[in-house]
Amino acid sequence: MTSQIDKANAFHALHVKGNPVVLYNAWDPGTAAIVAKAGAKAIATGSWPVAAAFGFADGEKIPLDVALDNIRRIVAAVDLPVTMDLEGGYGVVPEQVAKTVSRAIEAGAIGFNFEDQVVGGEGLHDTALQAERVAAAAGAIKASGVPAFLNARTDVFLKNKPDTHGEKHVDEAVERARAYAKAGAHGFFAPGLGDEKLIGRLCREAELPVNIIALAHVPPKAKLAELGVARISYGPVPYRQMAEWLEAKARAAFE
Questions:
Q1: Which end of the chain, N or C, is less packed with Cβ atoms under 10 Å?
Q2: Other beta carbons less than 10 A from residue 28's beta carbon
């Protein structure tokens, strides 16, 4: 089996602007094995589907111990890099973020999504504070000896409806991307952004490889590649589609 360090290095190498790695998000060992069998180069979890699969709401409602045990089981089920959605790091202060990241690496993860929205509160963390939190996560990664991929997420776009997205939102996103890169992030995640012009500008101005979620209003893979995207993930989409299918089949069975 490939070592955790080798998996981490391989995952870094998958992030190429213009040739995006596709992460079709799984939520447990069974779905991870299915996605791996389909040809995935890496496995990613999403906080919403993992929480839903265990009967919790999103927003760090699932106990961290449960989420980490799930990651251990996924890592054991597939011989691929596994990246984990850590939401806001299960704590506001940088020291707690660092502890959470250390525990996730110990569980076998080789990467993390780490968001800047105030979990359980309103709005986003101040850019300077979030940069400190990113730096704490980066420090924990360095201390672990595993070169895990830190995907710094901004919720600038998710906090605003797609038809209101404009240059001012990209201005803020670019500012945050630069601050997070300086703090030690390896990637920049902008979920909710779907406008081609704005995606293109973000990819040009952010030095970090950009991650976009393939939502309904987002351009197809070929166009995202053309715009310079380096990572495409599916977030809660697979779980929601599975849930709709399962409910329809159950209703048919009960009729």
A1: C
A2: 16
Closest alpha carbon to 136 in 178, 173, 93: 93
> Which residues have a Cβ under 8 Å from the Cβ of 176 and sit 6 or more positions away?
116, 127, 130, 152, 154, 156, 188
The full set of domains in the chain, from first to last, is: 4-254 (3.20.20.60)
Quick one: tokens of 48?
């919403």
What are the residue ranges in the chain where pLDDT is below 50? Answer: none
- What is the DSSP pairing of strand 187-189 with strand 111-115? unpaired
Residues in the chain: 255
Query: Tell me: the pLDDT tens digits for 178-232?
Result: 999 999 999 999 999 999 999 999 999 999 999 999 999 999 999 999 999 999 9
d(CA 43, CA 47): 13
Look at residue 1 in the predicted model and tell me its pLDDT: 52
Interatomic CA distance for residues 187 and 207, integer angstroms = 9
CA distance 115 to 46: 12
Cβ 244 vs Cβ 34: under 8 Å:
no
3-state SS, residue 19: coil
Strands lying side by side in the sheet with 149-153: 21-23, 231-233, 210-213, 187-189, 149-153, 111-115, 82-85, 43-44
C-beta separation of 113 from 85 below 8 A: yes
Contacts of 193 (CB under 8 A, 6+ apart): 157, 165, 173, 199, 202, 212, 218
Closest CA to 215 of 197, 198, 230, 195: 195
Based on its alpha-carbon atoms, the radius of gyration of the chain, rounded to whole angstroms, reads 17
